[in-house]
């Protein structure tokens, strides 16, 4: 699974984007998992969906 596939999946299912953002931030904060999960990159990639209108910036 690549970052591009995550962003594509979330853009197709925008109702899951908020949960995905939460999980990315949470899993990056876990000491062992944070080493393997690029949470910052996922968050920045998904925040680009705000510009396309797929996500509400107030909720994010």
TrEMBL record:
<keyword id="KW-1133">Transmembrane helix</keyword>
<keyword id="KW-0472">Membrane</keyword>
<feature type="transmembrane region" description="Helical">
    <location>
        <begin position="16"/>
        <end position="37"/>
    </location>
</feature>
<keyword id="KW-0812">Transmembrane</keyword>
<protein>
    <recommendedName>
        <fullName>DedA family protein</fullName>
    </recommendedName>
</protein>
């Amino acid at each position: 699974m690549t970052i591009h596939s995550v962003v594509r999946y979330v853009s197709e299912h925008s109702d899951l984007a908020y949960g995905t953002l939460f999980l990315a931030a949470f899993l990056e904060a876990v000491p062992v998992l944070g080493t393997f999960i690029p949470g910052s990159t996922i968050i920045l990639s998904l925040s680009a969906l705000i510009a396309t209108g797929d996500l509400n910036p107030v909720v994010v």
